[in-house]
């Protein structure tokens, strides 16, 4: 049949991302999607509780996004960003509306790209300030910042890295503020201050003159939804200021409403020096990413012609159709109040799933906006992570009932025990009912 032949041709020709090759478990071939629901080539429907890879924030099937891209392609499909075009100009201005006009916008194609640009700008900035010795970056274990060599070096998940070493020198890591596993007797606030201080210790040990920047997500997403206490982010920013280190905030997942604010860092009292964005910028309908850089930093690039030359070009970066689509995507976010809706849905999940705290294998439930992690453990006292078998079974059963959820964790320690949920912000109330009832039912069956 045609179905078999599609699977067969996939097997013959496509090298899939990340998944190990499995004869027994071929990939699902999706053919249609609308709202939060996807249909595979055999007609099965599933609710995409992960918005693809945490990116389809406005949901599937938005014809006006397709039309915005179409209209732009027909009118003028391409201008390199060595020049300019109207969608790029309008989008940059729009992003700056959210960012209080304090940033310059540099376009690329992916989250990894956006972080690479951040690293290069940070290094050149310090050089131009006469501090060429500042080349190192500090990030956190468990964080994910991308797949290219620099972004992978910043990533703090050894399993993703060890086969590709040596990576880029000068990337250092500290522990994330995993409050769930804080020492007994310590408050969340005390623990978060202690974790923030690890940056200062690292800076001192490494010589402050060598540190270019700190890169972090406002909330660690892929490493298992680790939500810092506000004091953590504030302290990190203070440390950056004290030592002349740039604070780079990776908003690739947290941006565009995911955490109940337009940007994840807006949950905290901080102002990043550099911000990377991708995924939700276009809700993944087309590739586009942005590195937003504080205007004060850009000023140093204007001191002389030689200085102003940031030697980085990217053929597709700032593609006109992608920029036009992104503008329309932001219009949808605003028109449908999806950022506020995300905050509201988060509160709803919090209430509806509170009873799961009594489940024998649920260690912790962490929710911010429409981003959720449920940390599964074998034993609530020892907090021993749930086995991959237990977590895998729950995910498979959700999938059988028509709900895609994800899993993440501390891959350094080799466990992936955090169930993750990140559905489109446009989910209907019935969609949310379905998500909640499915998760509850599956967990009930797995006591
Ligand atoms: N940063 C974060 C926080 C991410 O989650 C990702 C992708 N999962 C990236 C960067 C890299 O983005 P991309 O896959 O578009 O290169």
UniProtKB/TrEMBL annotation:
Transmembrane segments: none annotated. InterPro entries: Aminotrans_3, Aminotrans_3_PPA_site, PyrdxlP-dep_Trfase, PyrdxlP-dep_Trfase_major, PyrdxlP-dep_Trfase_small. It holds the Pfam family Aminotran_3. Keywords: Aminotransferase, Pyridoxal phosphate, Transferase. It comes from the Bacteria. GO terms for molecular function: transaminase activity. Belongs to the class-III pyridoxal-phosphate-dependent aminotransferase family. This is Aspartate aminotransferase family protein. It comes from Siminovitchia sediminis.
């Amino acid at each position: 049949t045609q179905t078999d032949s599609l699977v067969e041709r996939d097997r013959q020709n496509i090298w899939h991302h990340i998944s190990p090759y499995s004869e027994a478990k071929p990939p699902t071939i999706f053919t249609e999607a609308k709202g939060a629901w996807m249909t595979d080539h055999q007609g099965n429907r599933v609710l995409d509780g992960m918005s693809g890879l945490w990116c389809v924030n406005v949901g599937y099937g938005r014809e006006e996004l397709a039309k915005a891209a179409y209209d732009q392609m027909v009118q003028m499909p391409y201008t390199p960003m060595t020049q300019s075009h109207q969608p790029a100009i309008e989008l940059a201005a729009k992003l700056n509306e959210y960012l209080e006009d304090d940033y310059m916008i540099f376009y690329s194609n992916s989250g990894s790209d956006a972080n690479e640009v951040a690293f290069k700008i940070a290094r050149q900035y310090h050089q131009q300030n006469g501090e060429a010795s500042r080349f190192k970056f500090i990030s956190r274990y468990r964080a994910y910042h991308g797949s290219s060599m620099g972004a992978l070096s910043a990533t703090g998940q050894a399993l993703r890295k060890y086969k590709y070493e040596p990576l880029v020198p000068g990337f250092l890591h500290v522990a994330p503020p995993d409050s769930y596993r804080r020492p007994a007797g310590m408050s969340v606030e005390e623990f978060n201050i202690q974790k923030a201080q690890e940056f200062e210790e690292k800076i001192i040990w490494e010589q402050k003159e060598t540190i270019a920047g700190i890169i972090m997500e406002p909330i660690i997403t892929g490493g298992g939804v680790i939500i810092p206490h506000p004091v953590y982010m504030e302290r990190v920013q203070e440390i950056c200021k004290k030592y002349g280190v740039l604070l780079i905030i990776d908003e690739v997942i947290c941006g565009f409403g995911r955490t109940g604010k337009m940007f994840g860092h807006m949950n905290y009292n901080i102002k990043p020096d550099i911000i990377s964005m991708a995924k939700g910028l276009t809700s993944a309908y087309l590739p586009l990413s942005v590195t937003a850089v504080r205007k004060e930093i850009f000023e140093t690039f204007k001191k002389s012609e030689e200085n102003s030359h940031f030697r980085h070009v990217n053929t597709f970066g700032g593609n006109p159709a992608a920029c036009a689509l992104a503008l329309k995507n932001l219009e949808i976010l605003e028109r449908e109040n999806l950022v506020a809706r995300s905050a509201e849905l988060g509160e709803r999940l919090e209430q509806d799933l509170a009873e799961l705290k009594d489940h024998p294998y649920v260690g912790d439930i962490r929710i911010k906006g429409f981003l959720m992690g449920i940390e599964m453990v074998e034993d609530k006292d020892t907090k021993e992570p749930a086995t991959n078998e237990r977590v895998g079974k729950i995910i498979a059963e959700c999938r059988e009932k028509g709900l895609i959820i994800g899993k993440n964790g501390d891959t350094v320690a080799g466990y992936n025990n955090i169930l993750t949920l990140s559905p489109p912000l446009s989910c209907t109330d019935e969609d949310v009912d379905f998500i909640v009832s499915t998760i509850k039912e599956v967990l009930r069956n797995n006591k």
